Amino acid sequence: MDKKYDIALIGLAVMGENLVLNMAGCGFCVAVYNRTVSKVDQFLEKNKEYETIGGAHSVAELVAMLTTPRKIMLMVKAGQPVDDMIAELLPFLEQDDIIIDGGNSFFQDTRRRTAYLKEKGIRFIGTGVSGGEEGALKGPSMMPGGEQKAYQELAPIFTRIAAQVSGKACCSYVGPDGAGHYVKMVHNGIEYGDMQLISEAYYIMKTILGLSAEELHTVFSQWNQGELDSYLIEITRDIFTKQDEITGQPLVEVILDKAGQKGTGKWTSQSALDLGVPTPTITEAVFARCMSAYKDERVIASDLLTGPDKQYKGDKEKLIKAIHDALYASKICAYAQGFALLKAASTEYNWNLNFGEMALLWRGGCIIRARFLDRIQEAYAHDGELVNLMISPFFSKVLATAQDNWRLVVITCKELGIPTPAISASLDYYDSYRRKVLPANLIQAQRDYFGAHTYERTDRPGVFHTDWLK
Q1: 3-state secondary structure of 143
Q2: Against a cut of 0.85, is the pTM above it?
Q3: Active site residues
Q4: What are the start-end ranges of the H helices in 69-212?
């Protein structure tokens, strides 16, 4: 009798390959397929010590290799390639088979695919997978959404291959249809903000204080021992130790300052606009990457546009401490914005997300894993209806303690002409949120003046309009 496999994976790029090796290493039998079938043979040859991995040269052969109900995971490029692969699979599938999309798909596409496949009796699980190549191999953070019963059938595999923190898998059911991919999208949005904030902290210390790569390594090493302990701070620490083999300079200094993006940060900002949720740290991080792409224009503008020509004459160690506090406070704002967006989406799409559980999912395996995720989980465990992380007791105290240094950093950078779009936006977010009154009353007056859009009053209920020209 032919051997039957527990799960199939389609798409043998690095993430797909590493997930297969992770599954096989955990004792599961995995069938693999790739549209360029030569990659299947190459992968099997390279990993022939794994007897639990089998290869297929066609979709029909792959499906026939699986136990029922079949579980097929797609690790292909988001967008049309996912739809194409689903269409290719459908003729060979049967009632209650499960397709898992483990790519960075747009959540609305996942919702559409879920409904489409449900009509055909096929169950669909949209799963966010975070952790990059290393996480895929050693244990990623996994955010599955879709039919809960289908996830329960996948759970023995997913919870085994996921990252483990304190004996708990960084994988659990998120919610219906597109919830898993939405949570992954917000994870990536926070990641955009976090990366931009760290890069601004680096830029301030390099530009204003003239710190060398060796000194920056020391600073980030120290930071990674305290409240800022996180994966991104850890890898930033390590980046400053890498020398360029050609020039002998620190490698980071010969990398062109043009940041790429694949769309998830933009999707997060677009969803925030759709739902009316302010996410300025995340959105400014997206815009900062857009600005970095204008390299040629910036080079020209650097000779034409003037700015301050001052030198920082303050205490070096004091400013480094201030940058630490500004970074910590701004990171809290980025997470607060992400969780506020998750809360709004949960209501809009009837997902009933468990926000404390989201924090636990991100404690290991993923890019934004950080020490204070435990504090986020505690905040939601204490108050499941918490509207914003900034007003939880722990985080409000941190922000109060950090804000003098936070303001010092922003003021210093403004005086010296150093751009800090994400740190500045974070402080504005904090200041706006804590203000009982904002200048939107004037905006409403303007709107009513030119467009009769009406307004509400502070002293009585109702909706009003004024003839401003009378």
Answers
A1: strand
A2: yes
A3: 184, 191
A4: 80-89, 107-119, 132-138, 148-161, 179-207
